[in-house]
Amino acid sequence: MLKIDNLTAEVDGKPILKGLALEVGAGEVHAIMGPNGAGKSTLSYVLGGRPGYEVTGGSVKLAGVDLLELEPHERASLGLFLGFQYPVEIPGVSFVQFLREAVNAQRKARGEEAYSGGEFLKVAKEKAGLLRLDMDMLKRPVNVGFSGGEKKRAEMVQMGILDPKFAVLDETDSGLDIDALRVVGQGINEIMREPGKGVLLITHYQRLLEYVQPDKVHVLADGRIVKSGGPELAQRLEDEGYEAVTA
Amino acid sequence: MSEVATVPTTRDEDWRYADGDYLAAAGAEALARWRTIEVAPGETERNCEVRLSGPEASGFVDRLRVHVGKGGRYEHFATIAAGRYARIEIEVTLDEGAHFEFGGVTLGGGDKRQEFVTRTIHAAPNCTSNQVVRAVHWGRSVGNFLGRIEIPQHSQKVDAAQNFRAILLEKGASANAKPELEIFADDVKAAHGAAIGALDDRAAFYMASRGIPPEVARKLLVRAFVADAFDSVEDDATRDDLVERTLAQLDEAAV
Ligand SMILES: Nc1ncnc2c1ncn2[C@@H]1O[C@H](COP(=O)(O)OP(=O)(O)OP(=O)(O)O)[C@@H](O)[C@H]1O
Ligand SMILES: [Mg+2]
Known about the structure:
The structure holds two protein chains of two kinds.
Chain A (H helix, E strand, L loop, with lengths): L1 E10 L2 E11 L4 E5 L6 H9 L4 E10 L2 E2 L5 H7 L1 E4 L6 E5 H15 L7 H14 L10 E2 L5 H15 L3 E5 L7 H15 L5 E5 L4 H5 L4 E6 L2 E6 L2 H9 L1 H5 L1
Chain B lengths: L19 H7 L1 H4 L3 E5 L4 E9 L6 E10 L4 E9 L3 E10 L4 E10 L4 E10 L5 E10 L4 E10 L7 E10 L5 E10 L5 E9 L3 H9 L4 H14 L8 H13 L7
Parallel strand pairs in B: 1-3, 2-4, 3-5, 4-6, 5-7, 6-8, 7-9, 8-10, 9-11, 10-12
Helix pairs in contact in B: 3-4, 4-5
Bound molecules: adenosine-5'-triphosphate and magnesium ion.
């Protein structure tokens, strides 16, 4: 469903991704682990089309469509969702307003009818409930004054509302307390565990993978996938560290 | 702000960012004209204006002199998205316990030059003022805020705040802030801040990543930005109307 071939990308003229290849099949969850600065967030931004992240070679296809040809908002309408490692605060714009614009822009782009105010609120309530996020928080400006963990839960509420085909979740688990981790894990399964969907889960810890069991685990180091394996690889990495496992 | 009948030029401090050609064409007499407003003690007066004009219009200079009696309140909220050179100038004298509330937005593209000039004279103790100005510019347009705050020695316990922020949507646009504080009393609060920057590109990408097209994202961000200037408009409908009419001018921006 997501197919990345020999992808190279640079930021400010500095090569970060150096020939990355990865394929995630429909209905699968893959985990990416790797040392700090390896290029994991860069990969997520490149997939999302963030300005300043320049692709210098290779290809990315999502459901057969060339992702790199599309503008960031078009990628979202195609069904790509990015869960941010550092969700962005937007003062003066409420979550409700933000998400209603987002979901209706996507629906419009796909030729679907826009949600009415009532329909939108019903979906928003349901997803906020799923992630145990107080609906009142969605009346506040986007991420402003949210705690680290609340921001991450709010990311998952957004994912629930937008109902993407493919999600790249960048350290969604970091900053979550033990209970929140379980809630978020269950939320990811509920929203994304479907035959036609796929997930790329970027994480440093094995813990989230106990709730969201990956079909494959990859190690990203110095801009490439240097090792891939089954779920047991995550445990080995946690026990032995990157250097020993990838040596 | 002298009233001698000579044409001001950009060499004059108070007109330093003005359009010299406009001033010369307008002539000394027209530029020396002031409207006056007298707010009686304990009364409140409010003015809201959204000043627009077609691209051909040369613009305007509006000068307003306000006196606010003891415990009175004068509020002025204005958007300038008008001709080539447009200036709203307000000189306010505050008696004891009086308040001046000002919210202004300049917005424009092309060669437009828009400015607010205020002079707030805190003529007695315990008077207060709050001014919030936001500027949104593109093309080669310019937004200015010249704000002079005067607090003479006998005016203790004065609280005067001034805040200016500008967003430049394109490289050629610019903004100028010129706060001027003449404070001779010692027990006063006077806060002022100014910041000039571009639209928050992290927020823009976050919005895009959720499927919001760039022009919609820009509008949401600019709306939130200009709304600051009208935050203290008490009536919701009036405030929304000001924001929406201001924002409507953004649509002409082909950024
Ligand atoms: N704007 C930039 N200019 C220069 N280098 C950058 C820029 N942005 C990122 N980098 C570099 O790119 C490399 C990869 O960063 P990235 O954020 O993708 O790492 P990561 O794998 O997500 O790390 P972490 O586990 O700490 O989140 C780092 O060395 C980082 O310093
Ligand atoms: Mg990262």
